[in-house]
Structures are given as C-alpha cells and as structure tokens.
Amino acid sequence: MNIEALKTFLVVAEVKNFTKAAQQLFVVQSTITNRIKELEKEIGQPLFDRDNKHITLTHAGEHFYEYSQRFLELEEKMKMEINSCNTYSKIINIGCVNCIYNCHLKPHISQLMNKHTNICLNVILDHSRHLLNRLHDNSIDVCFSYLATNEISYKCIPYKTDEIIFVTNSQNIQFSNGIHNGEILHLPIIYSKFMPKSGFDWIHDIFPPHYVFQFTISVIKEIIPFLLQYPYYAFLPRKLIEKELKDGLLIEIPLLDYHIPPLQSYIIMKSNAKYNPLDYF
C-alpha cells in the first residue's frame, strides 16, 4: 500500500477538503484526487462521501482512518529502531493516558533518561482503547491505561490508585464544609472525561442522564488554570493537583451524599515482552 497515499488520506480526513489538503501537502489537487481513487480501488470501498461543499468519511473510511494511523506509526517505529540501533542499546515505546502521564509517569521520565543514557524513549499520549490497539499492533511496547484486560497474551499489572475529589478555587468557600448532590447540579462545573465510560459510572449517580456541563475540555490538566482564576468547580484526581492543594490555591469540597470509587490504572504489556517496565518505573 502506497505510503504517500495513506498520508494523503489522513490529511484529507482531517481537513475535509481536497483543495486544502493539496495546499498542505504542496501538490496539485489532481494528485490528491488520484491518490484517494487509488486507495479506494485497492480497498474496494469508497472512503469519502462527497458533495459540492462537504467531504465526510464513509463507514469504511472511519475504520480505515484508524488502521492508516497505526500503519504509519509502525513505519516510523521501524525507521527509528533501525537508525538508532548503533546509538542506543534499547528503544522503549510507551503509550500512556494523558492523565496517568501527568499524575504519575511524567516525574519519572527525566530520572529515567538521566539514569539510563543508553535508552531511547518514545512516549505516545492517547486514550486507553487506542493504546491497547497500538499494543496489539506492536507499535508500542507497554501501555499505561485505565482499561484492564484479561487476555492471556497480556500481562495486566495494577499501577496506581487515585482518589477523585471535588475541588474549587480556595477563595470560593461557600461549600467548604461540604455539599449535597442536589446543590452540585446548579454549579459551574468544568468537566473532563479522562477515562473510559465504564470508569465514569459514578457520574450518573450525581447528575441526571444527558446532563450538559457548562464547560468541557478533553485535556484534564487544562482545567487547573481555569480553577485558579475563576470560581469554577471540577472533579479531579488528587494526585494531579496535590501541589495546588498544598499551596492553598485549591480546596477540596467534601461530598456529603456520595463517595466516588477509587480510580485504578494499569500497566499492560505482552506476556512475551523482552523487558519488564517496572524495572524502569
């Protein structure tokens, strides 16, 4: 399968416009059209639905999008391993959920690099399910995930357990002694769904079905600056904001009607892995 055609497909899928894709890739639009036609002929399915104004992925295109990303990641991994074999004794490809990285893994990265100068480290931040797919395809060696697996071909080791707490700016003391579920519904909450759906079942015990939060953001760490400046509220892992809590910039608000279950993360790797990541982390 043509690598340039795959890269072209991914760009078109992102910008949703053949002309913009051509500009971004510095080619004429006919080249973009021909590459997509070649891919669709090879796949045997249309990858895009087109009209005069819009381009959207077909059902087949949506599946092909994820496979294309993983295919190109494997190509990059192969190139990196071949070109670095004379410089480094080991290449470690780590996949990690953004929240786990910021709470636990990030502080260990510089220590690891200082201690093991002969190691080449590659870190990919993504959602748990996508990381497990990458682990399956061998584009990463180890996965730090909120999703566990029972497959016998994998080792799934409990990593860290976090406490989820309800917090706000330290100047916002209205509910410093505690809050009832009914009162939470009327507050300006910044929400981030930082783990799989199964791990967020508790949120439905506090909020009604299809509740719309005033402010949502995909990267959980980006909630912190807003909390520090404005009277917002958020559910966050204690570890993520331990410095802000210690410095008195944020305060925890006790939940009077509910106890949020602990948040468990896992280290997952192939059973036949060549090394144990726990030796490094």
Question: What can be said about this structure in brief?
Answer:
This protein is an alpha/beta fold and 281 residues long. The chain is built from ten helices and twelve strands.
Structural summary, described in words:
The chain has 281 residues and is an alpha/beta fold. It is 39% helix and 21% strand. It has ten helices and twelve strands. The strands form four sheets. A five-stranded mixed β-sheet has the order 4-3-5-12-6, with helices on both faces. Strand 3, helix 5 and strand 4 form a beta-alpha-beta unit. The longest helix is centred in the N-terminal third of the chain and has 26 residues. The radius of gyration is 23 Å and the shape is globular. The relative contact order is 0.13. The model has no long low-confidence stretch (mean pLDDT 85).
Distance between the termini: 38 Å
Shape: globular
The side-by-side strand order for the widest beta sheet comes to: 4-3-5-12-6
What are the secondary-structure elements, in order, as H or E?
HHHEEHEHEHEEEHEHEHEHEE
Total number of β-strand segments?
12
Q: Provide the residue-averaged pLDDT.
A: 85
Share of residues in strands: 15-25%
Which class do the helix and strand fractions yield? alpha/beta
**Spatial extent as radius of gyration:** 23 Å
Total DSSP helices: 10
The biggest sheet amounts to: 5 strands, mixed
Low-confidence stretches: none
The helical percent reads: 25-40%
